[in-house]
Batch of 2 targets.
Target 1
Amino acid sequence: MAFISSGYDPKEPMKDRITDIGPRKYDEFYPPVIAKNKGKWLYHEYLEPGVYVHVSETGDEVYTVRVGGMRLMSVGFIREICEIADKHCDGYLRFTTRNNIEFMVDSKDKVKPLVDDLMGRKQPGGCYKFPVGGTGAGITNIVHTQGWIHCHTPATDASGPVKATMDVLFDDFRDMRLPAHLRVSLACCLNMCGAVHCSDIAILGYHRKPPMLDHEYLDKMCEIPLAIAACPTAAIKPAKVELPGGQKVNSVAVKNERCMFCGNCYTMCPAMPLADDVGDGIVIMAGGKVSNRISAPKFSKVVVAFLPNEPPRWPQTTDCIKKIVETYANDARKYERLGEWAERIGWERFFEKCELDFTHHLIDDFRDPAYFTWRQTTQFKF
Amino acid sequence: MPKHETPMLDQLETGPWPSFVTDIKEEAARRAKNEGNVEFQIPVDVCDDILGVLELSYKHGRTHWKHGGIVGVFGYGGGVIGRYCDQPEMFPGVAHFHTLRVNQPGGKFYTTEYLRQLCDLWEFRGSGLTNMHGSTGDIIFLGTTTPQLEEIFYELTHKYNQDLGGSGSNLRTPSDCVGQARCEYACYDTQALCYDLTQTYQDELHRPAFPYKFKFKFDGCPNCCVASIARADISFIGTWRDDIRIDQEAVQAYIGGELKPNAGAHMGRDWGKFDIQKEVIDLCPTECMWMDGKELKIDNKECTRCMHCINVMPRALRIGNDRGLSMLVGAKAPILDGAQMSTMLVPFIKAEEPYDEIKEIIEKIWDWWMEEGKNRERLGELMKRQGFQKLLEVTELQPDPRMVKEPRSNPYIFWKEEEVEGGWSRDINEFRKYHKR
């Protein structure tokens, strides 16, 4: 493995340096039908799950075939995507915000060969490589974070629970039978690199044990004032600690009962790890949305305070999600998002219908806004 | 024979959804075989070791990645995330496993030619594993060693005319919806504005000088497909201020059943015959629609542009022609003080090049936040701490009822001295002439 230089000279880093050029310009990559019809689209229509057409005022049409992508993918996999796009789409494609891959063709007769090709490609274990779906009143791909594959603060994995959940929800990825579209998201810790806090169903990794304190190293590895300032509940204070050998060191003390396990201290100070095989697990949240359609955007609400991490397939998590989806599918009105349905029937009825326990953990006690989530009316359902 | 046994991960190789485990195993096999005679610049068995370390996490229920060290490319403070494995002896191939964020093209359109170039570079100088895409929107190159960082940056900029994205306390890589490129709802050119602001603020993107991260996201309409209202410090959401365009013939075609409601999005179930009264008019949140005989009428002045009627009847109803965008500010995920949605600051502004008016507002907000924001304080948290009035003051915008859901329900107004006739300096002795102690 000989080192091969790109041309960069470490002795003269500024020589021929190119910086601040930004991304490639979007219109370099438009397929011709997109370049020609940008801003002229009249309407769109779903033809089958995963396939839709946009019609332009010029009479042109673009047929899009949407494929659920693993967000974590190899260059070998991307090259196969390229091969498909070369074969069917003149060498163009796009990705969606929710990690789907979209193949576009400019006439209807090109759709079926493309769909057949995509659905015909399987991995050795039988998984589809390029499942077509994820449109309309169904379930599209799960947006997610890194998890145990690459992150230092996760309370659960990401790609694993997503694979397990999408396997369970696959029929709804391939169908459009729901009252409205349903967005599932996963964030592997409270940092929420994805916008899971406004999803119909959110899977959130959560710690439940306060940080361990690596006293011997804490002052060497961390800026103690930053660790203290990082705590949103002021649970951390400076402390002098005597090590077993009698040496006194500067460190911190944590008021454990004030900790809400956000992990922000660990982000600032690696000598305060929270991760724990038993303490960590999953919070299920439900009823959020980002669209302004009919009702205002809403936050997701915590409906299950904790489920354990159960690698490799997280069965309690996927069972819970499946149950919520089925109850919603059977009970909600057409166009009603999950959160709108829950609000119409009342959250007391939501828990009853979804057969979820309502525990004290689900009553907000974090700061002022909590008060306004308590019931300040005599109106409730028995 | 795989380098590491992965009995738990192997259970993720069945079921209908694509398996990332299979994909990584196949990449590991391709690297081992190396049919293209690539001179791999990082360990050839990097993909085996990533599976090994992930399997160990599945066994331990904990991550095996350490905090990032300070790594990056010369002159930039972002775009590279340092990452080290906490079991480097067991998994030397991923001992150093740094991430690069590569600024994605607008709308995430690609040519295969360009994607292949990225693949070649990343196979040669990295793990060959990516995220397409990261949550912020970047192309993520997942895992390489420190000596490769400058080499990758050099090749990206010199060969591919491509820059890194943002990380740390800077402007994060802006991202947009598909917009006018392929959507009839887009009220402005999301890609054009996203690209313009990305180019204008390259310095802010690459050199962290902010109190914390700052995100721009561009949604072409109030459907908000990139979730800007939930996660951007400034959400740019397309809107219009004239009338919804109506094609009455198409309205009748929906009523008559020739056209499928909601563009066919509900075809997986028989919901019965389309009922315009029940499905559109009665669901309108402002009750501003009605049928006058065979004509659909909209009192546009009362419409709040929620998109429902347009979503249900896209061939009959179209967005207005006097278009622009709303700027909402302050959204963030939960850490630290709880999640916040963006708040309406500019109800309507035109989105036309060179976007000077928009930039003026952005820069006024940044001036305030950079002056007053505490370390790791998002804009939305500063807004909470100093109040919406302060934001109005620094942006020199006029108060407008469109900025609030409702007026305040307490009268505890912080009157300023100059707002009260005569000011606050008074003579106590003069007062006492009329009011005994």
Target 2
Amino acid sequence: MNVHPWFPGALGRWKWLNEPIPAERLAALRVATALAVLVDICFSYLPHFTVLFSADELGGRDLCADRFRDGRFYWSVLRVLPDSWGPAALFGTWAASAVGLLFGWRTLLCGLVCWACAVSLWNQNPLLHNGGDRVRNSLLLFVSLSACAEVWSYRGRGARGVLVPGWVVKVLLVQLACIYFFSGWAKLQSPIWRNGFVMYWVAHDLAWSQWPWGAAQVPVWALRLSALVTLLWELLFPVLVLWPRGRAVALALGAAFHLATFFTLEVGMFAFYSLACYAAFVPWERLRRAG
Amino acid sequence: MSATLPEAEPRAAGAPGTAAPRPTLAAVCVGLFALWQLAYLPLANLIDFVPRRIPGPHPEVFGDPAQQRGAFTTLEPLQRAAERAGDALDFWSEVSGQEQGWGMFAPGPPPYSCFVAVEFRFADGTADTVLSLYEPDHARPGFRTPLLHNRAFNHEMSFTFEPWYLPNDKITERPDLYARLPAGARAFRVPIVSYLKWRLAAYREQHPERGAPTEVILKHRFVRTPHPAEPTVWGTTVDERPYAKWTPATGTYDAYDPVRGAFVAEGAK
């Protein structure tokens, strides 16, 4: 959906908000998001699909019925589909729309369908999910409304030097800044984050660490240092991204953080969806220039 | 986000001509959406710091745990205005699936790991306990493959969030916090009973000789983590505490009150 947004008054002249960006960046965001959804479906949901979604096991549409009480606005298409085939139909639709998004086919439609499936799952059983799935929901909404199929789509590589509206990247940057800064603020209140020992306890936690024995081989000072760097990076993220070099440092640290947590802690898809956001900040257009 | 393009003259795909055209409905909608998102994202996080009188069950099982509850002022119009603003932000959070309130691994784990376990009690007075699917061998915990078990892991670990920071040895220090646990166990009634039924079905398949248990209890296990100066040996102490009890024959469900040290039926004072 390549629509140049209209902003009222002075906002329409605000360079930061109106600056167009190379089309490759939004195309990369679209591809990374679609790939993350497909990985999510294939590797995190499908291995336990029957157990997680069967009403006779851990699923069923009334599992978290209280979430849909009067006065709340949660919704899920699984509330109106039968337990017998509803989840399978939803996953089939979700995967098909993710493939459509991957190839840049009707991205508004595919993106919104993808988003509706993701939110439906999130609302139907929040127990299965974590903060990474909230990133997923936001990401799919933003991608669906963006000009993400001008290049690298089923129509081909696209024209050279195409610029598209960049508002999505700005919204994404604000979302990332909120995630990191408010997480950092919450951590700052904790004494074990301030002295760095939190990473020792996390790494040795038999539930949340994916390899406590391996983590036990890492010196305590290194674990403490990683905690303090994480805390500083999260708190400073909104400031660092204000200028290009700081943004590159903040995003590089972020990529390292998400990769490290993916392999060491039980964070699931949080790492993949966060890294998918980062795809919009890589200067992919330089690859074309180099080629 | 600026980029210098090497090719001749960059052109914006679908860019308007030199004369500013009248904005289309789509352009207005996208513009307003972008502005709303730019305002919504920080505001939805900041509103958590403003205490609000939120109706509904407490503790709220799902939703934004970072939201402070209560009142921040005695000026009713001001308090109400903040709450209406919060309601509007909540509305968009819920409708769009973008709930905010971030705190990855804050405040951090306590010096023990918390797992669930299921105890089956039989009419003959015997009992059998099955551990969490994710509780490893304490002697040498192995590597757990990322991602493949994460959804099922999340489901099971949801039952540990409330008691996680409430080990047995601190009950006398803050009994008010422990007194909230039964309400949490009741709020999770449906998913906990479905989990207990699922574990029971698997147990009976593996132990057909045991027959049906009279009671099925969800317990928490607090497995001590070695301190930094100690040898790396997990579980030198393992504390257990019941959380909820389901009686298969009658379908009754009771929450455990650690302050009283007993199960309490729903509605009991």
